[in-house]
Amino acid sequence: MDFFLKLFLSGTAKGSIYALIALGYTMVYGIVQLINFAHGEVYMIGGFTALIVGGLLFSSGMAVPLVLALSIASAVVFSAAFGFTIEKLAYKPLRNKPRLSALISAIGISMILQNFVLLAQTEKYLSFPSYLPELEFLRPVREYLNSTQFIILVTTATIMVALTLTIKFTRMGKAMRATAQDKHMAQLVGVDINGVISLTFIIGSALAAVGGVLICSYMGQINYYIGFVAGIKAFVAAVLGGIGSIPGAVLGSFILGWTESLGTGYLSSDYEDAYAFVILILILILKPDGILGKNQKQKV
Amino acid sequence: MRRSMVVVAILAVSVALILSGCQKSASGTIKIGVAGAHSGDLASYGLPSVNAAKLVVEAVNAAGGIDGKTVELFIQDDQCKPELATNAAAKLVSDEVVAVIGHICSGATKSALGIYKDSKIITVSPSATTPSLTQSGEYPNFFRTIAPDDAQARLATKFIKETLGLSSLAVLHDKGDYGKGFAELVKQYAESEGIRVVLFEGINPGAPDYSAVVNKIGNSGAAGVVWGGYHPEASKLVQQMKDKGMSLPFISDDGVKDQTFIEVAGTYAEGVYATGPMDTSSNPLAVKAVADHKAKFGDEPGAFFLNAYAATLAVVNAIDKAGSADYDAVVKALRSEYVETPLGRISFDGIGDVIGFGFSVFQVQGGVYVELK
After folding, report:
1. Which of A14, A126, A270 minimises the CB distance to B209?
2. Cβ contact, residue pair A125, B264, below 8 Å
3. pTM of the model
4. How far is B180 from chain A (nearest CA, A)?
């Protein structure tokens, strides 16, 4: 039972890591029906920005909480700017083209950003210092859940609730839903769809940046390639939960995390990826739109 | 009269030519072949050994050669391809070389070795690490100046058994050829030494989180963790283990014996053990060999340079000590005589593996790897 609890909590922690990235995937998909493969790279760039800014501030002798706040803030701004620019340059010109064009464009952007960081920064793994506070009350139970895992979990939950509320109850959220349903109609009734789409990318990228800082602090290292591996898993999680649905992305991430963790614990970690994909296939057979996905009628 | 003079003159000239030819091979040269990948994808592994052999031979010839005979090199390219390696070997046999420095890749070496064995030609590879080349006992003419692939796993197991005294192990690997190979050998040797392997698993390289497998290590009751793979995963594993309050000894391979590991893992790296090639950087002969290379070729030497340098020195020394280029005498000298090389004072054991150079166990102490003697 103790072992099960440990595995369950480690799966929960893992799930919340995937969820932080999956939220951005699912938001963008919900609005523009585009799988933004560059999302993982924006997450990686957020991590790198925090590493550089945090390093500079820390060596200038600033207090740790302030370093943390400023490095997260700069990562958010920088990644959001990346997200905004990517959308304008690579996706907007293709908005009325077949969906495959924008998808290929996304893959291209992902490669460009990876290679950009590889050339502009380094190909090596770098140490990522953790500026996150060590929560004292978790010390006795750190075998089960440590401080960083707990912070990631709480952040994920907060972001999920905040996003859901924004989309349900604010004016901007209403505009987002309208854009998602029918871009042309929304435009006709006066919704600034370009603004809405830009905002979606900005929010998604800002979330990726927060994820980048937290997850890199947890792993203790960063490299130009981390976005790809994490991005693929988060994408699977988003599809599992029903891509386009915000609670779905979080639920999918937790299911993925638990499956991997319990599979590793009771069977073997050799086939960790296989468990994730078996679950994905099973759910897609039974429920093709994902667990919480809306059943979309095909337009003929 | 005039015609017979011409005939006599021609005869005299040709006899003189033949005699001078004979004389040259009889007293003049000792032929040594150098074979390996000198072109193609893997040329960077083979070309440094050519440079090494050239430097050694130049120095030997400048000092008057071996017993007054100059050493001559015959260089053959095999591109690390077994089918080209047999051609290269046949060519070197027809050149009548006494010994060959090479080949570079294990596969190519194996395919050439049979030909050298039949022609009684000594072969000293600077880089072929497949264990069976020596351990099968098939090739008494084969020697190498590099430790075989299984040496690390043997050393790690010996260290775990004798120095750390652990009775049970969790063995993890990254599913790659290198990491899994090391892990499987450690498992095999550990079990034959009576150490229980309570966990043997591959993990996904690059994953953000290993807490599940770390929990599993804790649950398995292992007294130590062996990691076969590279440093990025190793640093996540040691970090997540220590974060969970586990303080098991962590033993790994050459892929972790890298300063980057310490830079990334920081204080989490303290106390980690890793096997790696013995440190030769302070050896004066190695320093000189590298400096000579820079002076002659204008850049830093590449892979296996020092191994090839040591191999050539060992061959030259053995021929010198044997007093002739006779196969049996030189083989005996290689196995019995020690020679000072950039790798240290080396000789060869009965199956042709190098003695005096190989792997050591290192431990991270105060932010650097320290060789444990």
Report:
1. A14
2. yes
3. 0.81
4. 11
